[in-house]
């Protein structure tokens, strides 16, 4: 994991859950971290905490559904850290849970803007920085919902399927330029999103107990591993944390 020391990392959706845990883990291992989220106050607090503990972190309020804001965040990270080595496309949304016959058009628009266009915007902004520097890693949080339909999740399932394909396209186009494109399918994680799912009472995922979900720290450890050369055999592919072999390689077992 020393491969990430002194690397510059930008993490979207970093105000809580997976993003916050990842920011803390990368910083703990010596990376320089930019935290991005729509809620600026929370990421500023986490960045201050990391700095107080001896790490390097900055925060920038960023709505990933707005390309200009994503571009500004990449520019800031590149300027502050001398480049951008790793982009974690973590920001995502699922609420509301609705069957197709009652689906809210505005909600669909929002999910696609965040979960699909937000990933594209990150890729589009990062590539012109990473390629001249010799490469970099772009890791996107995917989902088993990308390949398995779930009641009430049509927008989320569709958006994650698109994110998986974006990753495959990125690998096809840029792997020769040392751009490492990977997707992480973490399974169910103990985050606020699971509370929303539980409250909906729709589909089998809502029936899971809190203890059934993995901690976000496991996901953070996996993201660090995916940022290293040890995961090169998964470039262009989906890493599933449900896979016991992956858990062993990350060191979770």
Task: Give a quick rundown of the structure.
The chain is of the alpha/beta class and 253 residues long. It has helices at 17-28, 40-52, 67-81, 105-130, 154-174, 192-200, 216-226, 244-250; strands at residues 8-12, 32-37, 56-61, 86-89, 136-141, 179-185, 238-240.
Structure description:
With about 250 residues, the protein is α/β, with parallel strands linked by helices. Helix content is about 45%, strand content about 15%. The chain is built from eight helices and seven strands. It has a seven-stranded parallel sheet with strand order 3-2-1-4-5-6-7, with helices on both faces. Helix 1 (about 15-30) links the parallel strand 1 (about 10) and strand 2. The chain is globular, with a radius of gyration of 17 Å.
Helical content band:
40-55%
Radius of gyration: 17 Å
State the end-to-end CA separation. Answer: 16 Å
Describe the oligomeric state of these chains in a short phrase: single chain
- Please report the number of helical segments: 8
Based on helices, strands and strand pairing, what is the structural class? alpha/beta
Q: Main sheet: which strands, in order across?
A: 3-2-1-4-5-6-7
Indicate the mean pLDDT.
94
What is the strand content?
A: 5-15%
Q: How many β strands by DSSP?
A: 7
Overall spatial form: globular
């Amino acid at each position: 994991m020393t491969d990430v020391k002194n690397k510059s990392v930008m993490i979207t959706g970093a105000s809580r859950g997976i993003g916050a845990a990842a920011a803390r883990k990368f910083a703990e291992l010596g990376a320089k971290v930019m935290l991005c989220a729509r809620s600026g106050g929370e990421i500023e607090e986490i960045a201050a905490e990391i700095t107080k503990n001896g790490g390097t972190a900055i925060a920038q309020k960023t709505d990933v559904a707005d390309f200009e804001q994503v571009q500004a965040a990449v520019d800031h990270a590149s300027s502050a850290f001398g480049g951008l080595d790793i982009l974690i496309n973590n920001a995502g949304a699922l609420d509301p849970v609705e069957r197709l016959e009652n689906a809210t058009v505005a909600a669909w628009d929002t999910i696609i803007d965040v979960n699909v266009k937000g990933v594209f915007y990150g890729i589009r902004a990062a590539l012109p920085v990473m390629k001249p520097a010799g490469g970099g890693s772009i890791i996107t949080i995917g989902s088993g919902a990308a390949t398995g339909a779930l009641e009430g999740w049509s927008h989320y399932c569709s958006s994650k399927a698109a994110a998986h394909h974006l990753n495959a396209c990125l690998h096809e186009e840029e792997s020769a330029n040392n751009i490492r494109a990977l997707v992480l399918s973490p399974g169910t994680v103990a985050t606020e999103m699971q509370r929303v799912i539980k409250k909906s009472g729709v589909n089998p995922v809502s029936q899971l107990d809190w203890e059934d979900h993995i901690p976000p720290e496991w996901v953070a450890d996996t993201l660090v591993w995916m940022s290293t050369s040890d995961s090169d055999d998964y470039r262009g592919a989906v890493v599933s944390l449900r896979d016991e072999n992956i858990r062993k390689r990350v060191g979770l077992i």
